[in-house]
Every structure is written in C-alpha cells, then in structure tokens.
Amino acid sequence: YFEHLDNVPKWISPRDTATKNVIISTEWGALGKNGSLDFIRTDIDRELDESSLTPQQQIFEKMISALYLGEIVRLIIVDLVQRSILFPGRMQKSPSIRPDYNIFLILRGSFYAKHVADIESDTTEDLSITANILTSIGIHEPSYDDCYIIREVCKTVSLRAAKLAAAAIAVLINRLNMPSVTVAVDGTLFRHHQKFKKNLIRTIDRLVPRTHRLVLSEDGSSKGSALVAAVDRRLKTASTTLEKTFPS
C-alpha cells in the first residue's frame, strides 16, 4: 500500500523532495510475535504454533491462512474427542491411542482447508456431504451429531479467519483515506472458499465507510507491487502534464 514518506521512520535513504509516497509491504503474517495478539489467541492456536516448523513466528498467518485452517479444525476435533463430545470412547485422555481410533486425526496436517470449506457449505438435510468427507479420511460411521458439531467447528474457524483478515485490510483502506480503493487479493481461501470470501467482504463493508472493492489477483504480490509502482508513475506524469497545461 502507499504510505507517506514522513510516516516511515525506518527510511534510511536520502529523502528526495519529489518522493512523497513509498510502497510498504506490511508482512502482517508476522503480526503477533511481540505478544500483541495474545488477547485473542486460544490454547489451540498455541498448540498449533508450538508444533509447527516455525514456532513463535508468523502468528497472524497461522490464524487466517489456508495452510493452517484445517489443522486448527483438526486440533479442535481431537480436543472434543478427548472430552468425549465427539466419537465417544474412540480416544482416551492418556497418550495411548485405542487401535480403532482413526489414525488421520492424530497426524498433523491430515485435515485440509478444502475439507473445511466443503463441510461448512454442507446444506444437505442429513449432512451427507460432511459424513462422506469424514468417511473418506477414515472416520467411519460418524453420527449426525458428530457431523453437525464438526460443521459448526468449521464455520467458526473459517468465520474467525475471515474477520481477522478483514480487520487488517480495513485498517489499511481507512488509513489510505482515499475516495475509492481497490484491494487485490490472492490465496486459496479467497479464490475457492466462497463462505470465507462472503464473510470477508461483509466484515470489510462494516468496517470501511468509503468506496472499496476486492478483486482476485492472479499474479501474486510481486507483480502487484510492480503495478502499484506503475500507477504511481502514471499519476505523477499526469500531474506534471496538468501543471504545464494549467500553471498556477
């Protein structure tokens, strides 16, 4: 996003009087490393972080990214099983696992964001889509109550991710304080998870009072930054032309 150079205290290069704005990459996936997100993190978030390949890093990303969404749901399901809320009797609180317990739920990364999206969107009367997904990953004969609870878990985790991502986007849109803002979004969730996308847009609409729109970015953030630079150059060229045509 564009930021006024005066608001960038880490800028170390000589300040060109002609340069008033710079492009900032927020890298907000790393937000929370200093504990700023502890007030909304759960025990599940901490467990996921501690068992990840990058503990104490990318805290915000681990709460909103498709890469971690399924794992959050899996950890919640395991917790519910341990408390005999799901699949009663299949898993004991002790470290020993019953032979008949589904091995997929004890393997990190065995539950995917696609599972979350498909289960959340299940509107069948008997939740057959959810039952089929659970059966496909080895959870045999799940009851209706099991399917219902797991669908609610998927909805909640997905909604939280959408609202957190929306809050971060809304902060930048409001900070820009422009009449109209277009936000380029990439990623699996925005592209394929329709419930997530709707919740993201709905939350931003509540938080942003000015005109804005979200568009799917096909080319990633690097090309996006190049396009922003090109737009800035074009705006400066147009401004210079106007000054020559209508001198003050």
UniProtKB/TrEMBL annotation:
Keyword Transmembrane part of the UniProt annotation: no
Domain (Hexokinase C-terminal): residue spans on this chain: 1-231
Pathway: Carbohydrate metabolism; hexose metabolism; Carbohydrate degradation; glycolysis; D-glyceraldehyde 3-phosphate and glycerone phosphate from D-glucose: step 1/4
Annotated keywords: ATP-binding, Glycolysis, Kinase, Nucleotide-binding, Transferase
Gene3D superfamilies per UniProt: 3.40.367.20
Record-level Gene Ontology MF annotations: ATP binding; D-glucose binding; fructokinase activity; glucokinase activity
Its EC number(s): 2.7.1.-
Keyword set includes Transferase: yes
One GO term (biological process): intracellular glucose homeostasis
InterPro entries: ATPase_NBD, Hexokinase, Hexokinase_C
Catalytic activity: a D-hexose + ATP = a D-hexose 6-phosphate + ADP + H(+)
Enzyme class: transferase
Any one of the GO CC terms: cytosol
Record-stated family: Belongs to the hexokinase family.
UniProt name for this protein: Phosphotransferase
Organism: Rotaria socialis
